[in-house]
Amino acid sequence: MNTITKTLYTALALLAMTTIAAAQVVEKKSLNLDGAKKVIDAVKAEAKKLNAPGGAIAVVDDGGNLLALERLDGTFAAGSTISIGKARTAALFKRETKAFEEIIKNGRTAMVTLPDTLFTPLQGGVPITVGDQIVGAVGVSGAASAAQDEELALVGAKALQPASLGARVSYFEKNKVVDAFAKGAVLFDASDKYMVHASHRDKAGIAEVHEKDADIIYVLDGSATLVTGGTVVEPKAIGPGEIRGREISGGDTRTISKGDVIIVPAGTPHWFKEVPGPLNYYVVKAR
């Protein structure tokens, strides 16, 4: 066997060994501390949105090892231990803990004999999936109810999914946009992050406060005197986070016209005090 042939056989043998070794190793995604904190932040934001009274939030890796834990004010002391147990159960058994609660409720009580360090059959534990792999789990305990524990955990479990997952492009052809501006209408409201208004005014308005939404205003046509800040006179709540009033006392007064952009932060009073003619403007409400 000459040198070239020996070299070729050696290369083929090494390639075969490499292929066999590769087949024995699986690439695996893992959850790190930053990811765990993102999950907890998502749960806290949802709890605030729902006015949940409290809760303990635990995040574990796919082996059930604790990565992060946070107990909100007002949560009972045992909530931390229970939330860890829920998260660990969801990670090790690769399914929501709600399923085990249902199984036991339906008569398979033998499952409760599993050690409590391994098994907490209470709803509120949800696996965290990235792509097609389970990378860990989140457990929530101590919200208003067991059902709300589950609801909050589901929100946390989705926190690491791409924001664009399941999103669709929205398109509004020009005739629809023109019609919207003719009367003032909502163009888009299918997101928990923003809304788009095609706004139209022919006269002055009333004072407004949006506690949860910032208004990003772009003036297309016309002009107006806009007052921002100050104090709302005769304030009245017309819905969650929405306040209206007769006018504004104090504040900053400015004239806005075609091409101007103004950003009114959430919670800031604003009032179209004078509108001398037709005014068209886009408003993006950022939540």
Task: Kindly provide the name of the CATH class of the largest domain.
Answer: Alpha Beta
Strand content: 25-35%
Oligomer kind: single chain
SS-derived structural category: alpha+beta
Largest sheet: 5 strands, antiparallel
What is the string of SSEs from the N terminus onward?
HHEEHHEEHHEEEEEEEEEEEEE
Helix content class: 25-40%
Give Rg in angstroms.
28 Å
CATH superfamily of the largest domain: Haem-degrading domain
- Enumerate the strands of the largest sheet in spatial order, edge to edge or round the barrel: 5-6-17-8-15
CATH topology of the largest domain: Beta-Lactamase
* Beta-strand segment tally: 17
Q: From the 3D coordinates, which CATH architecture of the largest domain would you assign?
A: 2-Layer Sandwich
Protein architecture, described:
The protein is an alpha+beta fold. The chain has two domains: 33-157, 2-Layer Sandwich (Beta-Lactamase); 174-286, Jelly Rolls (Sandwich), CATH 2.60.120. 29% of the residues lie in helices and 33% in strands. It contains six helices and 17 strands. The protein has helices at residues 3-23, 33-49, 79-93, 97-105, 146-157, 174-183; strands at 56-61, 66-71, 125-130, 133-141, 185-188, 194-201, 207-210, 214-221, 223-228, 231-233, 236-239, 242-245, 247-249, 252-257, 261-264, 270-274, 279-286. A five-stranded antiparallel beta sheet has the order 5-6-17-8-15. The protein has a four-stranded antiparallel beta sheet with strand order 2-1-4-3. The chain has a three-stranded antiparallel beta sheet with strand order 7-12-11, with no helix packed on it. Helix 2 packs across helix 5 (146-157). It is extended, with a radius of gyration of 28 Å. It starts with a helix and ends with a strand. The mean pLDDT is 86.
